[in-house]
Amino acid sequence: MDDMGRRGQETPVVQPQMKNAEYSVEEIRTFLQEMSGRYDLARVVDPVECRILEFAEDGKVSMNEHCYGIWNAKQKCINCSSALACRTKLHQEKTEHFQDRDYFIQSNPVKLKLQDGSAFDVVVELVNVKGPGNAGANDREAENIGSRAARYLAHHDSLTNVLNADAFYERSRDMVTNRPETPWVMITGNIMNFRLINTLFGVFKGNEALVRTASLLREMSEQARGLCGRLGGDQFAVLIPQNEYHEQALQKIAGKLTEIYSSGMFTFCIHFGVYMIDNPRIPVSVMCGRANSALRTIREDLTRTVAHFDDSLLQKILLEQAVIGSFEEALRDRQFKMYLQPQVDRDGRIFGAEALVRWQKPDGSIMMPGDFIETLEGAGLIQKLDIYMWECAVRQLSVWKGTEKGQLAISVNMSAKDFYSIDVYEVLTGLVEQYGVECSLLRLEITETALLAEPEKSLKVVSRLRERGFFVEIDDFGSGYSSLSLLKNIKADMLKIDMGFLHEISDRERSRIILRSVINLAGDLGMEVLTEGVETEQQLQCLSDMGCGSFQGYYFSRPIPVEAFEAKYAAGK
Ligand code: C2E
Ligand code: MG
Ligand code: MG
Question: Which atom of ligand 1 is nearest to the CA of 414?
C-alpha cells in the first residue's frame, strides 16, 4: 500500500483500454506484467464473487482474496464500477476515496479463455492511488463514508439497491403500524424460469434483468410513497397504499421487461401476486406468502401477469396446511391404502396392476391423490409416501410369490422430487432384496417432468435401475413439453400413453393419427406401449388395430382395493 501511495502521488495516466474481447491466460498474464510497471496495481477480478484471480505458472487460474480489500477491508463496494463494466460490457472509470487516499480505477471488461476452452467474464482493473492528503479531515470523512456505507449495505441489496429482505420486512411493519388508517397492498413479483436466463445468456445478463426489474418496481413504489425490496434471488416485493394500486401499472412493467429481454429462444415473463392486506397484524412474511400463493396459481402461465389473493385461495391454503399437518400421523397409522388398477393384454387377461394411493381418513372418507400429492411434493414430504407405497407393492409381490399370482407385476409411481431427496436406487434395490422379490416385477412409472427436473442425475439413476433388472415405464407420455427430445435421451421398457391428452383434440381423425404415430414410434424404439384411460369398447378396438398391446382404464376396472383385485383376477382366469 505504501509503495502504491508513493507512486500514486503523480497524476494518474489513463492507458489505452483493453479491447472487450477474449484473451488467453497467457495473454492476460503478459498484459498484467506490462501494466504493473505503469500502474500501482494491475489485476483481474471476478465481480460476481468480488475476488482477485491468481494465475499460476502452469496456466491454472484460482480465486484469491476479495478485491475490495485494498480500500475497505470488510465489505463489497457500493456501485462497483467493475460489476457495471461487466454488466454493460463497457469500459468504466471511477475514483474511490478511502482513508486519505484516492483510488483511480479503470475497469476493462474482457472474456478470459481457460485452457479447457471455456470462457468467462472478468474485469481487468488498473488502479492508481493518490495520497496521503490532509489526514485528519480525510480520516473523519472516510469514517463517515465508511459508516454510511455500512448502514446502507446493511439495509440494501448490493446488486439492485432496493431494500433487502430483512429491511423490507422491518420497514413494512413500521409503515402499516404507523399509518393504520391507510389500507395497504402487498405485491410480490417473480421472474419465470429465471435460472434459464443465467444459463442461456450468462450471469451478467441475469443480473442486468434483476437490476432493471428492481428499478421499475422501485419507481412504482416511490411514486406511491411505498417500499420496494428484493426478498432473494428473483423475488421482489412492493408495499403500497391500496388507493395507489393499479393493475395496469404492473402489466406495463411486465410488458416493458418482456420487450427488452425476450428473444427467439426465450420468452421473458414476470408474474405478480397481489394481496390486499385485510389484516395488518399478521407478520409481513405471511402477507408476502399470501401474495406469493396468488402468484403461484399463474406461475406456469405465459399469458397471465397478475393474480389476486382471495377467499378460495385462503381455503386452499388451509386445506394444504391440514394435509401437511396430518401427514406424518396418517403415515404412522397406515391411513394410506394401496389400490390396484388392472393392466390387461389384448385378450383381456390381467398381467399386472398400477398401484395408486388412496388416503382413507379415520371418519371413513377417502381422499384422492389429486388432492394431496402436489401439496406433499411442495412440502418435501412426497418421498416418504412414495417409499411407503413402494414397500406396500413389494410386500404384495412377496405375498403373491410362489402362488398363481406369482407372475403379476405391480407398477409404482415416482415423483420428480424423489430423485433429489433420496437415493432412489438404494431404496428400491434394498426393498426387493429385503422381501426377496424379483425386480422385473416391480415396474417403475416415471413422468417426463421427473426426468426433466434434473436430467443428468435422473437419467443415470434410471439406466442403473434398468441394468439391475427393473422395468421402467414412461408415464403420461405426451402430456409434458418435450416428449420427443426425452425419447432421444432415455431408454425405457414401456411407454404409457394417457388417452386424456387426446380428449382436448376435437378432430377425431387427428387424434387417431397422433396415436398411431406414437405407437409406431415406440415400437421402432423397442418399447412396449400401454394406453391408459381406456373407457369404451370402441377405443379398445381402435387401439388394438393400431398395434397397442396393453391397456388400463375404467373400461376394465377402476382402481380397487387389493382383495377386490385378487378376486377379479381369480374370476377372469
Ligand atoms: P397416473 O399415474 O397417470 O394414474 C392414472 C390415473 O388415471 C389414476 O388417477 C386413475 O384412477 C386414473 N384413471 C385410470 N383409468 C381411467 C379412465 O379410464 N378414465 C379416467 N378419466 N381416469 C382414469 P388417480 O388414482 O386419481 O391418480 C392420479 C395421479 O396421482 C396419478 O396419475 C399419479 O400421477 C399420482 N399418484 C397416485 N398415486 C401415487 C403415489 O403413490 N405416488 C405418487 N408420487 N403419485 C401418485
Ligand atoms: Mg402412473
Ligand atoms: Mg399415467
Answer: 44
